[in-house]
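Q: Given only this backbone (123 positions), what sequence would you predict?
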């Protein structure tokens, strides 16, 4: 179960909410801190889908301290249009650019991927 507890920011990809993800397998229950980014407009949804791809490429490039993506969820409206879209991810506390454990080379790779999405296939 996902519980959103606070709105953290409004950005280019929509609204960023903090919260928790509760998982249970019958015997064990764990609660994880999460971030849910929610996009409403077509432009925000497209940017959020692109962000999901970037996170996947960073993970495949073995960049450390990248949030775990639990899923990209999209509501379909009855009229055939796309409804709100949400990117559910782990909360890591700091952005990749702010993390002191990330090397300068890894920051450059992350910056490059963000600026030049056509080159994502390089990774």
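A: Predicted residues:
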């Amino acid at each position: 179960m996902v519980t959103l507890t606070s709105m953290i920011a409004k950005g280019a990809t929509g609204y960023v909410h903090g919260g928790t993800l509760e998982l249970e397998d019958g015997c064990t229950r764990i609660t994880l801190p999460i971030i849910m980014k929610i996009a409403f407009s077509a432009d925000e949804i497209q940017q959020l889908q692109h962000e999901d791809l970037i996170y996947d490429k960073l993970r495949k490039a073995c960049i450390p301290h990248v949030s775990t993506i639990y899923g990209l969820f999209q509501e379909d409206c009855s009229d055939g249009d796309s409804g709100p879209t949400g990117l559910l991810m782990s909360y890591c506390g700091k952005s990749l650019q702010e993390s002191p454990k990330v090397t300068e080379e890894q920051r450059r790779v992350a910056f490059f991927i963000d600026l030049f999405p056509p080159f994502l296939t390089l990774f």
